Amino acid sequence: MGWTVYEIATDARTDDVEAEVFHAGVQAAEWIRPLTTRPHRPLVCENIVLLGGDATAHRALMAWPHWALKHLYGPAGLMFGKFWTDEEGTDRRGRRIPAPPFSFLAARCAIPPVDPRFLTDTPDLAQSLSTAVDDGRNVFQGLPYEWKAVKRWANSLLSPQRPVPPVKRSAAPRSS
Prior knowledge:
Number of helices: 4
Strand content: 15-25%
Strand order of the largest sheet: 1-2-6-3
Structural class: alpha+beta
Order of helices and strands: EHEHEEEEHH
Shape: globular
Radius of gyration: 19 Å
Helix content: 25-40%
């Protein structure tokens, strides 16, 4: 497990931070890829920590890099997750998950029988991950490495749509 820590300057531009987070994610993925054939492959993980800047903005700063990285590296068998300071959540049994003390992007080896359940909003990506094989391909085949171009490509992918909860209707008053 490795940790790369980035301190965000208070005057940093969003595009610059996104580009740095994305490139750190690429470095993490490329560090992990050769380790996926080793016996302890499920334990391989690299985390990119974001410190400084406006902590409430970390979630947004990680969104586009995360979206691009999971689409680039999912077919090669890598999983990316994003966690932000003060994130609140529950596990599938409804138990509270403690909020992380800092924001970070995690890159790890995928576990094909289990991980597709985290991608229910992106069924094509879930399917790709469930059958992923890292054949050493260049994940940037046909794409430039420059962040703005990668972000345009990522924006062209279908975004997951959250299901809209049904409208709760009160029961009609009964007449006597």
